[in-house]
């Protein structure tokens, strides 16, 4: 068989581990040939690719980023490019494509699959918000980076008797905020799933100082928003891909908390540092397992599906199910983390 692989959307620690695993399983176990499309869907639309043999993936398991490059693509470009993509698949003699990506990539994968392309997806995102898989690789690494940052920020916050508002990634869901906040013992956690009341947050942080504590750490997911009518909020705009961009929730909260509490407050935006660098062992293993199972699914002809973690098993699920909704933090998780607002 000849298999194409690509990485699309925001990058994520573990992408290289999947690429390596696909090549190892396909070449070693099945005698397949593998090619990698460059810069995500763009490579498929332009036929821009390189051959991936065992040498090409040697030494990349622990490397962050993606050796294939990534990009975001507008849905309309992909819709218009279906015939072009099919043409490249024919010309390159490909039997299957394995796109590795998050919500946007998997929606694009479904579109191509519905149009007859043989696709097996692999989910990735540090945000952990893909439905129907228990976990995505990259999440464990991102939570580790954020937790380490929170631990470090505690000491400087205490020296200066400050409130530090630490913004973590999570456009739609609060998984990174919840897990890093729990791991580091943050004093308040603000997530997109629960619009917050600034008065409640102020009281929560204020009570800590009244109890004699010298500092406070607030973790906020980038997509967190105030409850309607509770606070003026500068709405984000939409970027060129149609994604909502928020206007710096940590900056806003730092200004508000400082004004309301009369305590120094500083915003810290962790940003893309959460996506960079070497994946944790957990993410390397999950990524490697996804790659292995994606190749097996190709050989079984299970197209239009995606690998997923269910408990400790890797299964495949229909792409349609995977993109139907996002996996938000379930209500029962908040009971275990009383510092969530
Ligand atoms: O989808 C993962 C993610 O990390 C989001 O949490 C974040 O909003 C986004 O990517 C940022 O992406 P970009 O690389 O386009 O700035």
């Amino acid at each position: 068989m000849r298999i194409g692989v690509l990485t699309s959307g925001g990058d994520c620690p573990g992408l290289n581990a999947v690429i390596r695993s696909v090549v190892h399983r396909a070449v070693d176990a099945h005698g397949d040939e593998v090619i990698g499309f460059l810069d995500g869907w763009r490579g498929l639309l332009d036929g821009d690719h390189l051959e991936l043999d065992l040498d090409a993936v040697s030494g990349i398991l622990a490397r962050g980023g993606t050796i294939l490059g990534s990009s975001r693509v507008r849905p309309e470009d992909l819709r218009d490019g279906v015939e072009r993509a099919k043409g490249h698949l024919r010309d390159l003699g490909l039997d299957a494509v394995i796109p590795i990506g998050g919500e946007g990539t998997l929606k694009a994968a479904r579109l191509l699959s519905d149009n007859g392309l043989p696709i097996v997806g692999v989910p990735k995102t540090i945000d952990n918000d893909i439905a129907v898989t228990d976990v995505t690789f990259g999440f464990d690494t991102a939570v580790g980076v954020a937790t380490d940052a929170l631990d470090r920020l505690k000491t400087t916050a205490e020296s200066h008797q400050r409130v530090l508002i630490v913004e973590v990634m999570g456009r739609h869901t609060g998984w990174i905020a919840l897990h890093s906040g729990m791991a580091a013992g943050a004093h308040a956690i603000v997530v997109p799933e629960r619009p917050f009341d600034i008065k409640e947050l102020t009281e929560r942080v204020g009570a800590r100082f009244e109890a004699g504590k010298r500092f406070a750490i607030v973790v906020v997911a980038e997509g967190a928003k105030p409850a309607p009518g509770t606070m003026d909020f500068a709405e984000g705009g939409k970027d060129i891909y149609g994604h909502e961009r928020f206007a710096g929730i940590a900056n806003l909260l730092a200004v508000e908390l400082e004004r309301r509490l009369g305590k120094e407050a500083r915003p810290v935006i962790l940003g893309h540092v959460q996506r960079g660098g070497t994946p944790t062992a957990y993410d390397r293993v999950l990524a490697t397992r996804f790659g292995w199972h994606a190749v097996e699914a190709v050989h079984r002809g299970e197209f239009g599906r995606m690998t997923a973690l269910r408990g400790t098993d890797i299964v495949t699920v229909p792409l349609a199910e995977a993109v139907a909704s996002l996996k938000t933090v379930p209500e029962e998780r908040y009971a275990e983390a009383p510092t969530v607002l």
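The mean pLDDT is 94. The chain has two domains: 2-138+279-322, 139-275.
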